[in-house]
Amino acid sequence: MTFVIVLLGLAGLVFVIHMAHPRYKPRRLSSARFARDLPKATQSKQRRWRPGNPLRSRPLYLQLLFIVLLIGALLATFVAGCNGRQTASDKGIGVWVFLDTSASMSTQQGEVDRMSFAHQKLAEGIEQMQAVGTGLDVCFRWTTFDLALAEWSDMDSLKAAAPRPLGTNTGLIQEAVNGLQTAVSPPAACSITHILVISDAPKPLWLDGMDADIPIIWQDISTPVDNWGFEDIYARNPLTSATNDVTVEIAIYGAPPDNLENALTILSPTGETIEPEWEASQGSTRRARFMPEQAGAYELNIVPGGAYAYDDTAVILVQKTDQMRVDWQLPDAALPQMMGWHITSDTPSLRVVPVGAVPEDEVPTLVVGASYELLANTPTPAAINYFVEGSLLLADVNLDAAETLGLSGPQTLPGFSEVLKSENGGIWLAQRREPLAAYIPGLPQLRDDNLGRFSMLVFLNAVRWLSQSQPPAPLYELTSLNSPEAAPGRLPLHPGEGNTSKEPASYLEITDIQPTVTVTREEPIWHYFLATAALLFLVERGLAALGKEQWH
Amino acid sequence: MSTSNQDSPFSEDELEQYRFLAQKQSRSSLVGGHTSRRKGKSLEFREFTPYQLGDDIRHIDWRASARYRGQGDWLARRFVAEEQFKLVISVDVRPTMMLPGVLTKWQVGVWLAKAISWITLKDENEVVLHHLFGQKDKPHLLQGKRGLKRLRASLKQFQTHAALGEGVNLESIQKHLPPTAVWVIITDLYFGETEAEQLARAIVRAQNGLRWVILLELDSWPYEKADMGTGAYQLSVSELSKNEADIDDTALQTIENRIFAHRQKFLQTSQIDLHGLSQSWVWPAHNRPFDSAAFFRECFGKDLVLRNLFRKDL
Q1: What is the pLDDT of residue B207?
Q2: Which tens digit of pLDDT belongs to each residue from A323-351?
Q3: For residues A419 and A458, is the Cβ–Cβ distance under 8 A?
Q4: pTM of this prediction?
Q5: Model confidence pLDDT, tens digit, residues A500-522
Q6: Residue A365: C-alpha distances to residues A395, A434, A514 (Å)
Q7: Rounded to a whole number, what is the distance in Å from the CA of B220 to chain A's nearest CA?
Q8: Predicted-assembly ipTM surpassing the 0.85 threshold
Q9: Any residues with CB less than 8 A from the CB of B186 and at least 6 apart, and which?
Q10: Residue A36 contacts B, CB cutoff 8 Å
Q11: What is the C-alpha to C-alpha distance for residues A195 and B230, in angstroms, rounded to an integer?
């Protein structure tokens, strides 16, 4: 501010100097031509000094303006909110292109697949953007996406990327956009102004509610086509280890095939054709079951397939086991041998223990009571006064018949909840959910009476209930980033990839991509003041030297 | 008294009286000579011849004799018939003549032109009224009593003024300056060096061609000097040219010296002063109001050159 005060003082001095310039009184004199270039007046006492009117002096205005500009240059660095800078910006187009490379991009759509159609759309879009951005900076960033993002150096290398047997994760784009908007690092070589996504997936829901600084153009290049193929293949939960029941689910999108049942072929590991059992048609999903006789790779094919090929072939691995692994801790091991169970404490799928020795681990446990010999046929049979309706332990149990058995049971089972209880407080059946366990009065009685039927029924119900918490070994796994290629036991049956009949849903158009401010920078403005002041100084001095008298 | 629209300070009776007195003036006061005129006789100049003993001594042209002959060699005029007296009056009407405001030199020039024109026309002679500067102006010819009637209208031509920088108007009067004509130049001499050179050469040619050239200088400097005094001034003759000057006594003396030097140079170049045919009418050296008509009558009455112009015996 000192400089500003000094300059203001200079401005005042200029004013005083111009006031000190004597005021020349106009006078007409016939001999005026003889009064030019007179010697300087020496008789100061005879000279009447009159303060001149500086406002009549033309050079005064130029000189004052010069000083004002100098003050302005100094003040320009102090103006609040401006910081002596102006915002300058460059316009251009910077597009981050996301190209979908998921499995569904291999869908045949007319004469070409969806990926070829996407390439064409991309080429047209780039041509349009470069035309709009003529004379401006137009740049691109190339990325493909499926379950992960992959960067590419240019469009040619991007176009070389083929669809992969993987699913689609559109959330990756959302994360990329959010990361771009919050980036604090220096901008990349290409300053992004727009996001362009080319995919056969409809615009995601998060796009509608997204408040993005950078516009996102979502181009869904799909058109509905008919497709049918494997949606899921799974094994049913066995009660026994005798066989695995494999269920094949086939989804139908659009018009169904003429004869799907004939289209499906199942080959056993030995190459034998297996005829599945078909369930009645339920909407757009068909189910077929077959019983694998042996462990190994089973090949399933749908011929002819739909427009999407990755769901037409599946090779599953069936790991068939002859015996159920049971940790039998009762003294009598005749029953498990009869059931064909493999008695082992190594990774059992079921544990059978007497009451009072209930472990707390995660292995489903069947707790067996003292025995029906000890608990049944009590002299005073008690009626059932409590049961859990709908419990699987009571599936198909005749409670009236059960009352005649005269069962007794413990009064308490810590950690268990009663399922069937008599009026005298005896617990006949109980269950525990964490960890999974079930209580039955005793092992099944192999006799053909109420007791035999009741004991066997509740035993099997308990075993079934305990066995449902353990899903069978999967018949396949999905292809992943680590293992993107299909193989026996690894299938590209990603959810939604085979749904080729949905209507396209885009968001905005490529023509909406227009030149935008790409770089905003702050430039100082004080040098403009200084340059103008210098120019003004030259003009004033030039006029003083060469101009008419009023500029001297 | 200001120079307003006063027609002339002299009435016709006064001019008549002046004419009468001028014609009575003796030869001894003559400062120059011109062709003699004899009423009733027609004298037409024919040639110059060396003076022979017995010639009328009044026919000796002393100027021509001095120019072309040594001392004692005289030239006499030989006449065929009576020569008519032609008076050419050139009035300077530049912007410098429009000052000072109390009595402009222009007003004095117009009055003077009217007075001597009236006297000349009264004698049945010719008058040519002419703008000294301004190339576009044509002279007005007046003759005899008929010219008297047109005199007033012809004098109105001097109401149009020449601009600063306009050249000397000489071509238009060449044919109006025969030998023996009298050329009266009324000016303040405040023209530029180039104009001074041109006019001086024209005067020399005219004099060499046996013409009288009378320079009547109107000198307003004493009045303007007294009126302006010292101080800081933006001096100008007209709106076009302005000059800022810090005027003190030294500056005034410098101006005066420059005016004097300019005049002297012009007189020397034009050779007018050699023949004593220049006169100066000087404004009062004070800035008090004065009677402009009285001033004019005084100057006119004291001007011997003009008086000799109308001598009868010449």
Answers
A1: 83
A2: 578 899 999 888 888 777 888 888 888 99
A3: no
A4: 0.46
A5: 999 999 999 999 999 987 766 66
A6: 19, 11, 68
A7: 8
A8: no
A9: B89, B90, B91, B92, B108, B109, B112, B113, B132, B216, B218
A10: yes
A11: 85
